[in-house]
User: Fold these one by one.
Assistant:
Number 1:
Amino acid sequence: DQDSLAIVDFSIEYSEDLRKVEQIFESNKETIKNNVSYLLEAPRYLGVNNLGSSSVDLRFVAKVNEADRFAAQRALTRELYLLFQDHGIYVPYNQLVVSTRSDDKDNTEEKLNELVNKK
């Protein structure tokens, strides 16, 4: 079996304390290794990979067998999500803000219903 890397980019909100997130990961990386059977060693945090439009993107990697790489990435993503969720770290999600012109107030509810019902 050839060794490979499972690479996971994980996004957190800008409002999160990066140092706290890093500390939570460091304190729990052995538990993550124990929970993900595909990992050959504890995952590593490589740092901030990108400052996105609505998130800070963090990169994590773990040594795995090449044949297990994609399953390991999915399992590692799950473990990171659960870990951060358990510690109140928020993952950003897209939100839609709808605004209307003030001279068109009378039809606002009707237009919103039309938009929703088109799906």
Number 2:
Amino acid sequence: MTQAKLLIAPGCPHCSTMMNILGELLKEGRIGRLVMINIAEQPDAAAKYNVRSVPWLKIGEMEFSGAHSRAELDHAIEMAVSEDGQQRFLFEQLKNGRLDEVIELVQRDRERLPDVIALLHGSEVPMTVQIGVSAILESFADDPSALSGVLPELLELSRSENEAMRTDACHFLSLVDDDAARERLQQGIDDSSTTVREVARDGLEGQA
């Protein structure tokens, strides 16, 4: 069953409301365990998650900041127990303009990178999500080893029938220090799309 962790602080105007709602969810069996931490007494908890403001909530593996309604928390619990919940969570966060929070989350937990890349697979991906995915992956530009871990996902994306996806993939592959990435960029120079060819060529030149 889903567990929840709530960080609060003295003087927080919304913390009591969140405490009450989560208490109700606990009584109803919607969450199996609720941990509440006063960061004034336990500042290490805030440092661990780089929490800048409260209330701050973790439901399952999803993290939220600010006040949320009962309906929003019900929705979060539903995502937490669903198979595609992580992707849905990341999608909604990016769509709603919470890019900085998602970057910070993924930087702390690189195992979320495959879910980030998976957001690009879809017939209609919002521009905010596309831009968000690019920004997240580019945030690892100084740490190519991180993106090497999702090289198979990037190579798969580079073979998409969608020109925009292949273009994005070539850009992301240029950030990976790996022979397989360079080989795929070399192949991209012969792509049917002018844009893909240009991005692949620029990527190879940037790695030279």
Number 3:
Amino acid sequence: MSPATEQHTTEPARAGSLRRHLGLADVTAIHVGNILGSGIFVAPAAVALSFTGASGVVPWLVGGLIATCGALVYAEAGVRLPEAGGFYVIYRRVFGEPVAFVGGWAALLVTYPASIAAIAIIFSSYLGEVVPSLAGVPLLAAGGALVLVAASNVSGLRFAAQAQRLLTGSKVLALAIVCIAAIAAGLSGAGGAHEAPAGAPPPGAASPVSSLSAILGVLVVVLWTYDGWSDINMIAGEVRRPGRVLVPAVILGSGVLFVVYLTVQAAVGLLLSPARAGASDRVLAEAVEAGLGAGSGRVVAALVVLATFGSVHGIILAASRLGYAMARDRVFFAWFGQVHPVFGTPARAIGVLSAASLFYVFASGFRDLLAFFSFTVWLFYGLTASGLILLRRRRIGDAGAWHVPGASIAPYVLILVGVAMSGSLLIENPLRSLTGLALLLAGFPIHALWRRLFPPEAANGVIGGDAAGG
């Protein structure tokens, strides 16, 4: 590893900067915690309907490989450019400020907060099952969770990282234990409602070949369950020796997720018939009830509460660094680029992301807005992969610790999948996709206006003084 990379220790590069406190366990917990949310509690239904027996491994394996390739792209970019801000840093360096501005604003004010709000609402709906007295105030419960998460992240990186390790470790362990217990009880006949998959092939046998469209539909659902892998380099500016941490964290986290997801799928496949699983909107809860008996579904509701809360905590921890990085470059309001003088966190950036998420919790129809950008999200994934290829060709940054076999193909896999996903979304709903693209392109004239109001010379003055001083 070069000296340039080795200098990234726990000390900040300058006053008012974020400190490098995060190690392998922290980054792995953030990576797993951001991904492991509500998706795994419903996605196994689609898999069980199209794949039975050992073939149920296939979509999780394919989806996991694609997600790992994507995460490796972002991790290598974080090694080369170990700064807070993730994809924004890559775009600014490779494609220029206008592209970085548009992508950053769309993520900071639409895709991230709307996604966080959607997860918070799922959290509140399941919290009502666990604590019935809160069932009548779901929006207040979701808002309360966001306030609590914001306070945790503002209180210091060490505290937030410890909280994330606890949340991630708890939900991974609890989910695995519940699924294994349900399988064991169901197979032994201890549960009251075990249901053998009617007409299914014996364990280990391949399933009947599903239609291509059904298989692609399952893959889309599985990739949604793995979504969140692109957050890995948002925190690169706070990782100790990022060249030695980011890549192992991706590999370790991806392995944990794959094992957990297979355990959940095994519980569903062994305890429910394909028809029953495919028709269920609470498939894991039904599988657990089939193994452990009626009433145990509330345990799954508690797991969803834990998983979604941990996901919201991790996403705000990581994504708030985007607002911080943009503010430091004065392509977002510079006031949000300050570091808290006591806690050492980008408290104002955390606040603006949390406030935007709160807005979406109480705003009706925000999911339609988020759907407009689903087409462009995959375009951005492909753009980031293209940016990494250019970083390599221009020999920008240091990648001395990059020794993952097959890592050279990761960006090309992500580009191919990104084009395929965007193309399928465009064919499926051209009006919504093109509307989202038009909204995104409208950001370029907004950038021109922004730079007229806040020229780079003024930006340099602000960052050098007020914002950097914290």
Number 4:
Amino acid sequence: MNILFINANLHGHINPTLGLVKKLTERGNQVSYFCSEPFSELVTKMGAKWIGFSNKLDRFLKEYRPTDRHPFFMLMEYALLYDEVLLPEILDIAKEDLYDMIICDSIFGGACFLKQITKIPVVCSHSSFAMSQAPVPKHMLVAGSHPQLDHCYQILKRICESYKIEEPSLEQFFTSKGDLNIVYTTRNFNGDEGVHEPDYLFAGPSIDRLQEAHDLDFSVIGDRKLIYISLGSLNTDFVDFYKTCILAFRNTDYYVCMSIGKKCEVSQLGEIPLNFLVKSFLPQLELLKRADVFITHAGFNSVNEALYFGVPMLALPQVNDQHMVAKRLVSMQLGMTESIKDLSPEILRSKTETLIKERKIKENCMLISREMRNFAGLEQTVWKLEKYVDACGERRWE
């Protein structure tokens, strides 16, 4: 197969796809991967050819300012405007080569429009929960109920008139169902009864990617319980939170590895206790293999990686789907959640110790870990994609 893979400029959207790209190229398929320059080395190491953003798309990413701050409408507004700039570029790229399939990120890939514009099979890559409906009440999507929503409808109409295609509903745009759909978890954790095979291919978490380089000496942990703390790679400017973590666990019998990102400096945190390792970046997969508790922002990719290794979690959601992920963890008794604004050293330490001692949560985490490890998701996904392209090719010749 010759595949065009369309994605954006965010770790949470690109990292889950890397194992799939590796499996595709290992089987002799050609993958051209459209994403931002900082991810070029990652995708080329998976065997793909990298295609970069144009200046126009880069300029949009830097200059976009929301017309309002409603969480759901702001995401829709951004995604629609992104697609409006993206589509001409993708259609130009598609003309230059004979692609058998386009795999689009479900939020930043234009799938809702491309499957009407092009005759090439369009597959959606869902970097979070695949959903059968929008996570807001129906009345919230009625035109005229909010200025930012009305702006979304204006953009949607403009795109569809430009390409002379049928206008989807805003809910259809959000749920972004392709001809086939790839979801980077198990059906059990995804949870939506309206999302099921054969239209959705559950690939499981993307653990099969390059090992992260590190020079950590794990022998310093010894027999101590390991607490791993990370708020991801995007929203990491939380100096007060990191100080709270230090107050909660300093001079304890725990060993704490804390990733603080690039938006603050270690020097801002004062004296670092001897039982702490604090860096701007830490090798997440290597730490999750050893961690007893993961204190996380509840990013979908990070949570699936932790579940793969059977690690209980304290979820501190901040934006977008993180709140849904945290609720799913609690409902399945895989962890606990708390507002980062309400955390004190005492609450943080108490909840963490509960997770370390709570047998039921640990047992549930190990059960889902075994499910994910026994899940031949990526191999089956690649095989089904190849079969689908073969079937589409046969129909074209009929």
